[in-house]
Amino acid sequence: MIELTRLNKHVFLLNPELIKFVEANPDTMITLLNGEKIVVLESPQTVAERTFAYRVELARAVSISRRAAMRAENTKPNSQNEERQP
């Protein structure tokens, strides 16, 4: 989620995956995928930068999760190499 500010100074969080496009008219208007429009104090550049930072952090978290899963998989005993007990 990215933090943005409405014109009335109310701070809110927006899921950037819902953004269709951002434009300046002169206020910054965000159009969501469902057609809803939100006007914010931040510039379109700031919205883009926060969206980029969100996606970088998301990609980092996915990468860390995948590496942890791979490490866990590599530490599991291999059934072919286990000795069988009579």
Main attributes?
3-stranded antiparallel beta sheet, two-stranded antiparallel ribbon, 5 strands
Give an account of the 3D structure.
This protein has 86 residues and is of the alpha+beta class. The chain has one domain (2-72). 37% of the residues lie in helices and 27% in strands. It has a 3-stranded antiparallel sheet, with helices on one face. A two-stranded antiparallel sheet has the order 1-2. A hairpin with a 3-residue loop joins strand 3 (19-24) and strand 4. The protein starts with a strand and ends in an 11-residue tail after the last helix.
Distance between the termini: 56 Å
Structural class: alpha+beta
| Major sheet | 3 strands, antiparallel
Please write the string of helix (H) and strand (E) elements. EEEEEH
Binned strand content:
25-35%
Number of domains: 1
**Uncertain stretches:** none
What average pLDDT do the residues reach?
Answer: 90
Q: What's the helical proportion of residues?
A: 25-40%
SS elements, strand count: 5
